[in-house]
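dumping this here so i dont lose it
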């Protein structure tokens, strides 16, 4: 029987992220499937509030590494903290959220434990008493089901694949874990764009995709770049949706054409871009060609706005296609949003 440990780190405000709570529900279901329990390990400046927020999750114990050294994402301290917790818990199976912070350090933790790691797992089940994980390969074209005999086995759970564990707050008793760590790296601050400038939002409810049509000549024979920007930014501001793009739109800058100032190659969705996991997606001025739509694999509810009734979205790729002018549609939508 595996000894299961759920590992998480706190956010800047001391809470647990949605991704962390999703991984917790995954580990809870896994432990139930195996007919055993699990322990929790938390890393952060001060983890009591986070531990209390999940006190009733069914964990057998709460291990903690806390202090100013663990406030920020830093390889040396995070790796040392997680390794120490895993050792103290005698964990053979470690499940953690695939946050940016843990994605950096977990492979190092597995190496220090002499174990193995599988990252960005999208499924975690028990079949015939065996743990089976789900991963995607080759830019999300191939799905695999994997088991492992090596232990300790460290598994990171991709965001948006499980419902977050909620409603289990209480009061948790922490077992402090001592860590010996030497680091030469001092974190002097964080430089990050403001939430409004940062338009790639993996945890948003909706993905808004802009296509090259926004930059094309419209019925009046001219382009309307400024209006396109206003429509898109107005919608993002009003809904806090995440922004995606077709390849054609982000490639325009390389071709010396007028571009939307906030669009980068990181926004590209598709075969050679990202495969986001939002629940809902709205494509605008985007044709819906297969190399683009393949990136919508995990988007459950899909809608598109296109002038062309024969565009790709109409070929079974969207649940609803609005055959309409996206400039007019977004003017109305933003009006309704009060933008
Ligand atoms: C190997 C390979 C890999 C690729 N990888 C990717 C990838 O990762 N991601 C990706 O996106 N593409 C990828 N592509 C390119 C892809 O095939 C398409 O060329 C691209 O997605 C087209 O972008 P688009 O739909 O924005 O532009 P267009 O094809 O130019 O379509 C613009 C659309 O906007 C509509 N439109 C114009 N004005 C309006 C308006 N006012 N209101 C409503 N609709 C309007 C038009 O009807 C048209 O359908 C790849 C291609 C290859 C060969």
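and the seq i came up w/
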């Amino acid at each position: 029987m595996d000894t299961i440990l759920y590992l998480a780190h706190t956010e800047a405000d001391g809470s647990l992220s949605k991704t962390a709570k999703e991984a917790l529900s995954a580990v809870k279901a896994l432990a139930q499937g195996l007919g055993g329990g699990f322990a929790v390990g938390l890393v952060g400046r001060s983890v009591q509030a986070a531990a209390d927020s999940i006190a009733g999750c069914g964990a057998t114990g709460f291990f903690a590494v806390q202090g100013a050294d663990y406030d920020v994402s830093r390889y040396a301290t995070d790796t040392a903290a997680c390794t120490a917790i895993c050792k103290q818990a005698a964990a053979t199976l470690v499940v953690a959220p695939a946050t940016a912070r843990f994605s950096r350090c977990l492979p190092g933790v597995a190496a220090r434990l002499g174990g193995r790691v599988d990252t960005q797992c999208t499924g975690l089940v028990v079949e015939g008493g065996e743990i089976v994980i789900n991963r995607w390969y080759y830019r999300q074209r191939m799905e695999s089901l994997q088991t492992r005999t090596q232990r300790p086995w460290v598994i990171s759970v991709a965001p948006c694949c499980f419902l977050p564990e909620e409603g289990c707050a209480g009061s948790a008793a922490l077992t402090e874990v001592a860590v010996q760590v030497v680091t030469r790296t001092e974190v002097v601050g964080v430089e990050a764009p403001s939430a409004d400038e940062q338009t790639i939002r993996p945890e948003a409810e909706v993905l808004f995709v802009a296509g090259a049509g926004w930059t094309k000549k419209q019925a009046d024979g001219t382009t309307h770049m400024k209006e396109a920007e206003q429509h898109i930014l107005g919608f993002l501001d009003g809904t806090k949706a995440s922004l995606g793009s077709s390849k054609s739109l982000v490639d325009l800058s390389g071709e010396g054409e007028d571009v939307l100032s906030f669009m980068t190659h990181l926004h590209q969705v598709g075969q050679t871009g990202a495969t986001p996991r939002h629940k809902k997606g709205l494509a605008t001025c985007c044709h819906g060609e297969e190399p683009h739509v393949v990136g919508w694999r995990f988007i459950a509810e899909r809608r598109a706005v296109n002038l062309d009734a024969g565009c790709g979205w109409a070929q079974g790729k969207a649940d609803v296609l609005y055959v309409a002018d996206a400039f007019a549609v977004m003017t109305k939508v933003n009006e309704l949003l009060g933008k």
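The chain has two domains: 4-176, 206-336.
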